[in-house]
Amino acid sequence: MVGGAAAATTLEPVRTSLAVAAALATTCLLTLLAGASPASAHATLTGTSPATDEVLAAPPERVELRFDEPVETVGDAVRVFGPGGRRVDTGAVDTADGGATLRAGVKGDDEGTYTVAWRVTSEDSHTLSGSFVYHVRTRTGAADVSGDGGDTTTALVGGAGRWLGFAGSLAAVGSGAVALLLAPRRRPAVLLPDAGAIGTRAHEPAAVARPDAPGGPGT
């Protein structure tokens, strides 16, 4: 019985350490996930007019971009390049639907492929960019707008930062848990009855019962 109690007492700090480590890990994970959600909720391009890769019978008077949330435009937010690589947009961008729709006028009427490059800032202050093409009567190849790409870089840097922070927090929690488990624990003293006292008390009744003992009934 004494051994079982001692074992239970020894295991109690281990159970406490594991419980504390699990609680810390859960809290850290929930905090990181809550903080990462808004950062990853960038605006998304949901549609364009003309549609991506659409072939038109006549050149459009304008292009339209629709996002799933309002965006901010700075500078050349929407640029349109004609088949020869020359800009054919009017340079002005109008907004609608509270800033979720952008419209830019087009003055090009040549046959061929037109490339639309866009760059906006979402409500979470991230700069996003992209491009799409449409064609007037025939396909001739898109203009090179590779220098405008910023969306991929933003996504990679933002994602790397969030997961590095997540990994660092988990490492900190793991180190704390290991420290708790490996910390020296002082076992509580288990009080055992004194062997000499047990022997003395065991013999006391016999001494009282002996007739010939000094002070006994026979003396």
Task: Provide structural commentary.
39% of the residues lie in helices and 26% in strands. The chain is of the alpha+beta class and 219 residues long. It has a four-stranded antiparallel sheet, with no helix packed on it. It has a four-stranded mixed sheet with strand order 2-8-7-4, covered by helices on one side. The model is unreliable at 148-164 and 205-209 (pLDDT under 50).
Supply database-style keywords.
3 helices, about 220 residues, 8 strands, alpha+beta, four-stranded antiparallel β-sheet, four-stranded mixed β-sheet, elongated, about 25% strand
Summarize the structure.
With 219 residues, this protein is an alpha+beta fold. It has helices at residues 2-40, 151-182, 195-209, and strands at residues 45-49, 54-56, 62-67, 72-81, 89-96, 101-106, 112-121, 127-136.
Indicate the percent of residues in helices: 25-40%
Helix/strand-derived class? alpha+beta
Count of alpha and pi helical runs: 3
Query: Total strand count, please?
Result: 8
Task: Provide the fold topology.
Layout: H1 2-40, E1 45-49, E2 54-56, E3 62-67, E4 72-81, E5 89-96, E6 101-106, E7 112-121, E8 127-136, H2 151-182, H3 195-209
Parallel strand pairs: 2-8
Antiparallel strand pairs: 1-3, 3-6, 4-7, 5-6, 7-8
